[in-house]
Specification:
By secondary structure, the chain is α/β, with parallel strands linked by helices. It contains nine helices and twelve strands. The chain has two domains: 125 residues, D-Maltodextrin-Binding Protein, domain 2 (3-Layer(aba) Sandwich); 98 residues, Periplasmic binding protein-like II (D-Maltodextrin-Binding Protein, domain 2).
Length: 244
């Protein structure tokens, strides 16, 4: 069996995630003793050996929802978002002369990947509705890399997952070189999934108990508050903008 909590697993919080998984594993009574961190996400998400992993809303609604089982959606208590929801922050350099979205129209937009809800779909849906368009789209491969691209003047704006942005503010000096000029409409957060045929109720119960039992420092480091039940059809109603 395979387990991963890789979506919010930057080095500074890996030990907290390890302890989180240890509590989940203890309540399940089976599964791998350690998290996997060296498998391609698409291989992981689609593996029949998958016990628990976190995916992004866009991969879930576009490709995975018919082939995996939904466990639940972690709630990170992000300001302005309903439980289990999140949004994207649109960031520019802290010293950028403009502070309105239209000031950056025609510029360079950094995104982590085209199959990302928070890095591509949510920002593009939001910006397209406002008539803000970019002359160049720069793929970076990761939210942290998108933040750095803006800070280093490789790009003019990026859309970052608000939970990742919070973790960057906690641990990465790059956040001090950026400012938020807008936030997108909240959408369902990153769901926990398992392979089809597994007992999702018992897995969800183990996750809920593990969250409650986390040491306060670990819970604060992960910014996790609970586990929410968001049905699949709610994910499927989120729009998919054109690919870059």
């Amino acid at each position: 069996m395979i387990a991963s909590l890789g979506m919010y697993d930057m080095p500074a919080v890996q030990t907290a995630n390890d302890r989180f998984w240890a509590r989940i594993h203890a309540h399940l009574g089976y599964g791998p003793s350690r998290l996997t961190r060296d498998i391609d996400p698409w291989v992981l998400w689609q593996s029949p050996e998958l016990l628990l992993a976190q995916t992004c809303g866009m991969p879930y609604r576009t490709r995975l929802h018919e082939t995996v089982a939904l466990v639940g959606t972690p709630d990170y208590g992000m300001v302005g978002c309903p439980p289990g929801h999140y949004n994207s922050v649109l960031v520019v350099r802290a010293d950028a002369p403009g502070d309105r979205l239209h000031d950056f129209s025609g510029g360079r937009f950094a995104y982590n990947e085209a199959m990302s809800q928070s890095g591509w779909a949510a920002p593009m849906t939001y910006l397209n509705a406002l008539g803000v368009a970019f002359a160049e789209h720069i793929k970076t491969g990761a939210h942290a890399a998108s933040a750095k691209a803006v800070a280093d003047d490789v790009a003019d704006m990026a859309g970052l997952d608000v939970v990742t942005w919070t973790l960057l503010q906690d641990h990465d000096p790059v956040a001090k070189r950026l400012k938020v000029i807008a936030t997108t409409t909240p959408t369902p957060g990153l769901p926990l999934i398992t392979a089809q045929g597994r007992d999702t109720a018992s897995i969800a119960a183990a996750v809920r108990r593990a969250i409650v039992e986390l040491a306060p420092d670990d819970r604060a480091a992960l910014h996790i508050k609970g586990l929410i039940d968001i049905p699949t059809h709610t994910y499927l109603t989120v729009p998919n903008p054109p690919s870059p």
